[in-house]
Amino acid sequence: MRLCLLMASTLLFVFGWCAVAIASPPVSLQADALPANLTENNVTAHPEEMDGEPVLRVAFEHVDWPNVFFTPENGPWDWSNYTGLAVDIYNPEAQAVDVSMRIDNEGADGMNFCVTGNTQAPPGEWTTFTTYFHGLEESPFWGMRGIPEIGPVGQQSPDFRPSEVIAFQVFLPQPSAEYELKLRDVRLVGEGGFEDLAPLPFVDRFGQYKHDEWPGKVAEEDEFIQARDAEAGALAEAGPFPGRAEYGGWADGPELEGTGWFRTAQHDDRWYLVTPEGHLFFSMGVNCVHTGDNTWVEGRDGWFDWLPDDDSPFAAFYAEHSGAHSMAEPIDGGGRAFNFHAANLQRKYGDDWRTPWRDTVYERLEAWGFNTIANWSDHDIYVNSPMPYTVNINIWGDFRRLEGGTGYWDKMVDVFDPAYGEAVEARIAERTEAHRDNPRCIGYFVDNELAWGSPHEYTIPREVLQSPPDQPAREAFVEELQARHGDLDGLNQAWGTDSANWDELRSPEELNSAATEDHAAFLERFARRYFRQIREALDEHAPNQLYLGCRFAGAPHRIVLEANADIADIVTLNLYQREIDCERWCGEDALDAPLMIGEYHFGALDRGMFHTGLVAAEDQEHRAESYQQYLRSVAECPAFVGAHWFQYVDQPITGRWYDGENYNIGFVTITDHPHPELVNAAQEMHRALYPLRAGEEPPADRAPDVTGFLD
């Protein structure tokens, strides 16, 4: 899962300042004047007074990433002696509003040379929003995106330098409507760095936070067996989820032609999946149905109450890793890790735990009303699944990427490199072999959150021209430009540039009409070549199953979306928001294709976790309400055919090994206890979804309670 809110803004601000850094207050608010260092980007700001203090009232427009943007007046700010930037936010709206902050070095683009923080402003009250950017490397709490007693810290790129801050912004991440907020008292915090926040050790033998209590926390070994037996009885008593046909389709709904495979179709002006036997199907899925993530134990002496000896049966849950995200710098990105969740599964289900755990997962998901096992689930879970499922294929191989590009997970693939086409063929042949004959396999997601760039900029063509002359995509673009404009003089005249030769050609900062036309044409060619190569390989190796798209992180350029819609069967979007903007995706400008949500989630900090994930909730009850609100908004949009929650189990509190994520985003805890509030809300929403989508009254009866054993 890429942290899509890092895509906060795609504006690139370049300043020609001297190298001397100047420490100064970031911004001074006054009741009668706007700050001199403020830029309004799709917002309207008004200075005023509230309760005797100066505030900045900001009206945010209904666009992507509206922001108030602040820059130093005399050169870069030096914040190296502080740990974060704080601002008080008042939300006068009737509902909570998701708010983000980004702090930039020169060259920041939302993924590089910056740090981004996210929070939620609750309605009708002041809240303090702090984005932390420095000091974790000096504290004992490295390698976690949220830390004890503090909670979430900023998502910081490894090249960010707090001594050279050239800007910060407060923005709304893809808001679903216009909102108004008030800002007060912008200030630096944490002078001198982080102090110890929690006594060591702070992780108990079951991977839980040691210094807090909450409902469902496991204290003794025998609680695992008690919970296992009690849940088995509740699931057996519950029986099949009501209202479902074979394959999880709508038993009481219209029946279409069954082809023996999943397909897409429109019915009553709404897109649906259709099951192999012809029932309407809306995919309610869970990502990452697996045995949990490893977390570093290397370089974390004193953190843990217990770790197994090498001759212990639990030593099987150690692993060695290398090449981790920069958050693992204290151990040079490699070392020993441990899987607490898998160890707890052995405690609960016995030495041969995998099969009884797997069978329990199937029973749970059916009883909770899910009908799809989604991306990144274990191979064993897929091939034995009684439920429909989707398969992920990542294209790996020895091929070129755009050397002039950027990206959170990696640079964009070069679709013009012949080695890329060979890798597509090889990987798809390999990954489809176990699933191509299984009608329960809905289809294939190929790739995830590639670096497609901004929805408003021609990012790919720019990166292609920033790449070396021998970059295959660059060679293709230059040939296209030569065919369009003849010699270099013709191109310079058309673009208003002064390139000395073709090897030095770069995109102009501002694209005129001719340059825009050329960049748009190449972006379309690039995108269609990407999707077409994958489509052809899937048609050869898995002709009966669906091409589910590439799982966009948010929304890329419209040209890319249309290429996906024209070539693949479904456009999949990972949209971490409070709810879906139906007008945007299903209005007059809707794509002529079915859509799917590949990832969404909500998390809270009331169950011993240190990070909420990408969309915060106040507590577990609010998580449950947020789940229903989001899924309802998807179900009510005619273009969507499914939504997949990320993920099955909470992440380890000390962070997954490769990027430090430690989010409360699971349906179950690290000790394999379901979160009852979330499960009950999901059951209710899943029971109502098919009638709701068809404009009918939801059924009066509820699915049986399968979490009462936790009381």
Concise summary:
This protein is of the alpha/beta class.
Task: Please describe what this structure looks like.
- It is a single chain.
- With 711 residues, the protein is an alpha/beta fold.
- Among the domains are: 4-189, Galactose-binding lectin (Jelly Rolls, Sandwich); 222-387 and 575-710, Glycosidases (TIM Barrel, Alpha-Beta Barrel).
- The chain is 24% helix and 19% strand.
- It contains 13 helices and 28 strands.
- The strands form 7 sheets. It has a 6-stranded antiparallel sheet with strand order 1-4-12-6-7-11, with no helix packed on it. Strands 21-17-28-27-26-25 form a 6-stranded parallel sheet. It has a 5-stranded antiparallel sheet with strand order 2-3-13-5-8, with no helix packed on it.
- Helix 7 packs across helix 8 and helix 12 (620-635) packs parallel to helix 13 (676-693).
- The radius of gyration is 26 Å and the shape is globular.
The CATH top-level class label of the domain at 222-387 and 575-710: Alpha Beta
- Order of adjacent strands in the largest pleated sheet: 1-4-12-6-7-11
What helical percentage do the residues reach?
10-25%
- The coarse silhouette is globular
Through-space gap between termini: 33 Å
Estimate the strand proportion.
Answer: 15-25%
Structural classification: alpha/beta
CATH architecture name of the domain at 222-387 and 575-710: Alpha-Beta Barrel
Count of strand segments? 28
Q: Considering the protein shown, what is the CATH homologous superfamily of the domain at 222-387 and 575-710?
A: Glycosidases
Q: What value does the Rg take, in angstroms? A: 26 Å
CATH topology of the domain at 222-387 and 575-710: TIM Barrel
What's the total helix number? 13
Uncertain regions spanning at least 5 consecutive residues: 1-24
How would you describe the oligomerization state of the chains in this entry? single chain
Largest sheet: 6 strands, antiparallel
Mean pLDDT: 92
